[in-house]
Structure formats: structure tokens, C-alpha cells
Design goal:
The complex is a heterodimer.
Chain A (H helix, E strand, L loop, with lengths): L7 E8 L9 H11 L3 E5 L4 H13 L9 H5 L3 H6 L4 E3 L6 H14 L6 E6 L4 H6 L3 E2 L12 E7 L4 H8 L4 E3 L7 H11 L6 H14 L28 E5 L4 E4 L10 H8 L9 E2 L4 E3 L4 E6 L2 E5 L2 E3 L4 E21 L3 H19 L3 E9 L11 H4 L8 E10 L2 H12 L1 H4 L5 E19 L6 E6 L5
Parallel strand pairs in A: 1-2, 2-3, 3-7, 4-7
Antiparallel strand pairs in A: 1-8, 4-19, 5-18, 6-15, 8-9, 9-13, 10-11, 11-14, 12-13, 15-17, 15-18, 16-17
Chain B lengths: L2 E3 L4 E2 L2 E4 L2 E8 L5 H7 L2 H8 L6 E7 L4 E7 L20 H5 L2 E3 L2
Antiparallel strand pairs in B: 1-7, 2-4, 3-4, 4-6, 5-6
Classes of the chains: A alpha+beta, B alpha+beta.
């Protein structure tokens, strides 16, 4: 079924997370325009952690809490995308989609686009349901108790249907809050090809395209390059990905000509399995994706065909992530270098833990890292650095991290690191301290019928 | 029988969901797929993360694309929002796996 009579649709990705390269969308849009056929672009800027921080921003300022780089991402591409009827979709609404829609409207007005149609998707906020306390926790989080902390907000992962509805009603830009990542790619395909919401085979193609593109450059050479082992061209200018999808369910992953990075079997395999658990059952709100039959074929430079994905009926429930606040993270670091650095660093670690005991601060948990001895692979107990029997490193950075019940306790704990500048081991220097609020998350399962969505599509002049 | 780190013959990427870590593992040469299947067991991978409290490891096999997916439960000390460690996402853990040694024929 193809109501538009065009058998190839291109989807470009312009961002894989909040914090991605801001100049990445420009060559992607240029490539979509040069290709000439129907296309859309999507931006995935909302990780599990991002929305929690956005909720705190919104609480501080009612007009904040959406993607802070939204205007910078859109300003260079909005006019050309609108002129070529290439819709832009994103979950850049984060904790405040209406405010994000107003920001897009202001940008459109400033660029002389008062008729730009902005679609707003709402309904992902399920805070009241979680507060009522009758939602089952997600399997991975059973037993995770949040009793002493305060619920900030909870958001359900919406599927593609409301996004596709916004496109059907003529939206040039779609602003959503929490959506599943693949939904942002499935929606324009649903709209273009007229896929039904229970066409599991078609939705599996869309979900695979979305999954491969959702992290931007991660399928075109990002977090892939390993000098001498996995080299890529021009890692400072990695081209973001484009998926070509046909009405028959064909899928090719590629990238804009003239950009860095690469698309080959290795990059596609790494991203295909990224954040995946059971490959026979990758749960999305739109379809359960089974990649166990997937085959890959290099079709030419920077072109990989993906086939064999299967779809099964979507889950009856949606996943929702609840964010809690309460405790504080206190951190402090100092450096040691040269002869006997390892012994001085080990003793510093023990002195810091002893100081926390002496001070009697409200510290729930403390950890000391010896950076330079594989700290990112170590445990809270320091199993690796305590057992280290290898060579003595030239330099070690000692890091204290505490979870405390109050900001003041976190601050006081981190200041014990600062005090080492006078009281510490010989040659202690380079202190840095940081105190930040901690956000804890717990996932729940929500019945679909408990998450009604609302779609509004209006021209910029009526929103700004 | 040379012992080599997996990094010499394979590549990997780490991902997370909450406190659960997944590690893909793909040999550069499909001929090494059986060797990895025989030597990089669930037990060996779980052992890499025991000191962090990991409780279980499941290995999924994708022979059509010569890939493995290891899912390690409770390997992230609380995950991105809960952990005190520097890398709550566990993104650096793929290289802990790649340091594991295997015996080449």
C-alpha cells in the first residue's frame, strides 16, 4: 500500500543524544534534498537520564525543561527543510513539550516562516499514575525501593501513532516528549507508506531502521574507531546516518557523501546489538522486533543492506520511567605523580574513608577511585586497585564520590578532598570538587489505555 | 597455542538499561566464530564483573551475522542514575571484555 505513489523513502538522523554535534544535521539535510525524493529527519535527544534533569529545570523555570540545544539544532536547517517539505521530528520536548513548541514557533517567526506547521504530541506524563502507587515495576527494577525519595515525574514511552497523526495533519516540525527512540523513525514511514498499526512485518523494518539510526553517528563510525584496529576516515566530521526504506520492506543504511566516518558490516553490527538484550524480542511500543534472522550485505561504499527482521505483536503495556530526587552526589579529586605515587594514592584513599567516619557526615555510600588503575572497571569497594600488583603508574588521580542525604553533607564530604592540599600525602595537588543533585529512576509498566495522547497542529503564528 | 586478548580478533560495544549491561562481541574473521563460542562462555564473562556484584550472564548467539550478545545482570553498580562510579552507563566495559584472553589454534 502506498498512497503517495513513491516507493523509496529516506530518513535522516540529526542527533543521537542531547549533547551531540550541533553541525551534524546540516550535511544530512543537504543529502536528503539532493536525493530529491520524499524524506524526513529525526532527532533523538532524550536519554533515561536527560528527562530527569529536564524535569528539575522545569521546576526551576516553567518555560524551561526542553532540549536546551533545540534552537541551535534547528536554526541552520529549518528554512530549507520546510521549503523541501522534509518534516523534522524530535523528542526535544523533554519535560516540557509545549514550551519547546513555543520555542520552535518563535524561531520560525524570526526566520520568516509564520505558516510553518508545528505538531505537538502530549500525554507521556504519567506522574499521577506512579504517585498513586499501583503500577507494577519493570522486570529489571523489581525490588528497587524509592520509599525515602521524592517522585519528580514519570513519563511513558509513546509509540509512533501520535507522531504519524501529526504528520498526517500537515506538521512540518513534530515536538514530542518521551517517545521510544525507534518511533521517531517509524512515524514518517507509517505516514508515507500508509502502514497499519498492526502490520508487524512492516513495523519491524521501521523499528530496525529507527534502532540503527537512533544514536546518530554510532552506526557511521562513532564510538567505533580504534586506531590501528578499526580506523575510520575523518573522525572529526563523521556523517550522520540515512536509512533508505522501500515499500517492499527493503532497508539500506548509508550516510551523506563528503562526510567522515563509514558504514560497513562492523559498524552496523555494533549498533544493531547496542542496548539490546534478547535479540528475538526487542520491545518497542509499536512492535516486538526479532533480529535473529537478520542478514547484512555491503552494497557498495558506505551502503549496507539489512534484511530478515521479523515483527511480533506489540506489548500490551508501555514502559514508563519514574524519576526520584532526594540524595546528593559529592565528588572530589586530587592528583599524585612520580616515585611512590601508588603507595601515596592508596594511603590517601584510606585516609579519606577514615575522615568520613571521623566527621560522622550523613553519607549513605562512599567510593574511592584510583584513576589510572582501571577505575571505570573497578567496584565501589575498590577491588581492582586494592588488589593491583602490576606496574606502578606514573600518575594517579584519586577520586572520592559519596551519596549523601543533604547538599551540605555532600559538600562537607567533598571538602575532605580539598583539605588534603595541606593535610594530605606529599605532593598532593590539583583538587577539584563538585556537588550535584542525584536523580534515581525506576521503570514501570503502564496499560496503554491509561496513557491517552493528544496531538495539536498549529501554524507558528498562532503559537509564538 | 598463542594466547591473545580478544581485542586482537574481535570488536565489541557496551550498552545499558538500568543496572543491566549488554556487550556485543563480533570476530573480524567469521572463521573465529566457533573459537569464541567455545572459549568466551557465560561463566567467564560473568567472572569479569563479579567484583561489581554481577549476578548472571546470558549469551545470545547470532550466527547469521557472526555475532554474540552477552547480557550481564547487576553489573553497573546501580546504572547511570544510581552508581557512584565514573561510567554509570558502563560504556567502557566493552574493553574489559576485549582484554579477556583466548587461545588461537
Amino acid at each position: 500500500m502506498n498512497p503517495h505513489g513513491m516507493s523509496l523513502f529516506r530518513i535522516g538522523n540529526g542527533a543521537g543524544f542531547s549533547g551531540d554535534r550541533l553541525d551534524a544535521p546540516i550535511p544530512v539535510l543537504r543529502a536528503l534534498i539532493a536525493a530529491g525524493g520524499p524524506a524526513a529527519m529525526f532527532f533523538e535527544t532524550l536519554a533515561e537520564r536527560t528527562i530527569a534533569l529536564a524535569q528539575l529545570e522545569r521546576r526551576r523555570d516553567a518555560e524551561a525543561g526542553y532540549e536546551p540545544m533545540l534552537e541551535r539544532l534547528l536554526a541552520p536547517i529549518l528554512r530549507d527543510a520546510a521549503a523541501h517539505r522534509i518534516p523534522l521530528l524530535g523528542n526535544w520536548g523533554a519535560a516540557n513539550p509545549p514550551a519547546a513548541a513555543r520555542a520552535v514557533a518563535r524561531l520560525a517567526m524570526a526566520q520568516g516562516l509564520p505558516g510553518l506547521r508545528i505538531g505537538l504530541v502530549e500525554g507521556d506524563d504519567v506522574t499521577a499514575l506512579v504517585a498513586a502507587g499501583n503500577l507494577a515495576p519493570h522486570e529489571a527494577d523489581v525490588g528497587l525501593e524509592m520509599g525515602q525519595w521524592n517522585l519528580v515525574a514519570a513519563n511513558a514511552y509513546l509509540g509512533a501513532e501520535p507522531l504519524a497523526e501529526a504528520l498526517a495533519r500537515g506538521a512540518d516540525v513534530v515536538v514530542a516528549g518521551r517517545t521510544s527512540d525507534p518511533a521517531l523513525a517509524i512515524a514518517p514511514l507509517m505516514h508515507h507508506f500508509g502502514w497499519a498499526a498492526d502490520d508487524w512485518a512492516a513495523l519491524a523494518v521501521g523499528a530496525t531502521a529507527g534502532h540503527l539510526l537512533e544514536c546518530g553517528s554510532q552506526v557511521t563510525g562513532g564510538v567505533f574507531w580504534d586506531p590501528g584496529f578499526k580506523d575510520i576516515p575523518d573522525p572529526a566530521n563523521i556523517g550522520f546516518p540515512i536509512a533508505e526504506v522501500t515499500a517492499e520492506g527493503g532497508l539500506v543504511i548509508t550516510k551523506p557523501a563528503g562526510t567522515g566516518g563509514l558504514v560497513d558490516l562492523r559498524t552496523v553490527k555494533e549498533q544493531l546489538l547496542y542496548e539490546l538484550h534478547d535479540p528475538a524480542a526487542y520491545l518497542t511500543p509499536d512492535v516486538v522486533l526479532d533480529i535473529t534472522g537478520v542478514t547484512l550485505a555491503q552494497q557498495g561504499p558506505d551502503r549496507v543492506a539489512v534484511a530478515g527482521m521479523r515483527g511480533h505483536p506489540r506489548p500490551a503495556t508501555l514502559k514508563a520511567t519514574a524519576c526520584f530526587e532526594g540524595s546528593w552526589l559529592g565528588e572530589g579529586e586530587v592528583s599524585l605523580a612520580g616515585p611512590n605515587a601508588l603507595a601515596r594514592a592508596r594511603a590517601t584513599a584510606d585516609v579519606l574513608l577514615e575522615r568520613l567516619r571521623i566527621r560522622g557526615l550523613g553519607v549513605l555510600r562512599a567510593r574511592v577511585d584510583l584513576i589510572g588503575l582501571g577505575a571505570v572497571h573497578d567496584s565501589d569497594q575498590g577491588a581492582l586497585w586494592r588488589g593491583h600488583a602490576g606496574a606502578e603508574p606514573e600518575e594517579i588521580r584519586v577520586r572520592l564520590a559519596v551519596e549523601a542525604t543533604s547538599r551540605d553533607d555532600a559538600d562537607q564530604a567533598s571538602r575532605e578532598v580539598l583539605a588534603l592540599l595541606c593535610c594530605g600525602a606529599a605532593g598532593t595537588g590539583g583538587a577539584r570538587l563538585r556537588v550535584s543533585p542525584r536523580i534515581l529512576t525506576r521503570s514501570h509498566l503502564v496499560p496503554r489505555e491509561a496513557v491517552p495522547t493528544r496531538v495539536t497542529v498549529l501554524p507558528a503564528r498562532e503559537i509564538a | 597455542m598463542p594466547m591473545v586478548p580478544l581485542h586482537r580478533i574481535a570488536h565489541s560495544r557496551a550498552g545499558d538499561k538500568g543496572n543491566r549491561l549488554n556487550l556485543s562481541l563480533m570476530p573480524y574473521d567469521p572463521a573465529h566464530y566457533p573459537l569464541i563460542a567455545a572459549q568466551v562462555t557465560e561463566a567467564r564473562v560473568l567472572e569479569l564483573f563479579r567484583h561489581r556484584g554481577a549476578t548472571a550472564c546470558t549469551r545470545y548467539e547470532l550466527p547469521l551475522i557472526h555475532a554474540f550478545n552477552f547480557v550481564v545482570e547487576n553489573a553497573l553498580e546501580g546504572g547511570v542514575n544510581g552508581a557512584l562510579n565514573l561510567d554509570g552507563h558502563g560504556k567502557t566495559q566493552s574493553f574489559r571484555l576485549l582484554a579477556l584472553t583466548v587461545e588461537l589454534p
